[in-house]
Each structure stands twice: as structure tokens, then as C-alpha cells.
Design brief:
mainly alpha; 83 residues
Length: 83
């Protein structure tokens, strides 16, 4: 059982739990679980965004040398296009 000290807060949570035909404990635990999943997802997206941004910037600032297949394709393009 979850204890809520603030009367107004307890009434709000009880009303929401009643509207969903669930106990306060079940309502609070499910709400906390959803909030935890959202927090983890938001953090993961932020970390991936930072990593992806860094990789993109590094690729622009320090591009890798063309490999042999790309070099061959560029030579063939120049030969065929007369450039």
C-alpha cells in the first residue's frame, strides 16, 4: 500500500484510480512505470543524438579517404564523361 500524506494529492490520485477502476497502488505503480520507461527512452534518444551528431560532424570535418572501389568509379566516370 502506498501512503500519501497530502490530502488533496491523495484525493486526486484516488479519483484517477477510481476512474480507471484500479486500486491506488496499482494506479501509482503503473503511472510510475510509464514515467520510468519514458525517462529511459528520452535519455537513450538524447545519448544517441549526441553520438550521431558527433559522428556526423567528424565525418564532415575529417572525411575518410576514398576506397579502391570509389576511386575506380571516379576514374571511370571521368573517362566516360570526358572530365
Amino acid at each position: 500500500m502506498i501512503h500519501v500524506a497530502n490530502t488533496a494529492r491523495k484525493a486526486l490520485i484516488q479519483r484517477a484510480a477510481d476512474l480507471e477502476s484500479r486500486s491506488v497502488t496499482d494506479f501509482v505503480l503503473q503511472s510510475a512505470e510509464r514515467a520510468a520507461e519514458q525517462t529511459i527512452q528520452n535519455r537513450a534518444l538524447l545519448v544517441l543524438s549526441v553520438v550521431a551528431t558527433d559522428a556526423f560532424v567528424q565525418a564532415i570535418l575529417r572525411p575518410a579517404a576514398p576506397g579502391p572501389i570509389l576511386g575506380k568509379a571516379a576514374r571511370e566516370y571521368r573517362r566516360l564523361s570526358g572530365r
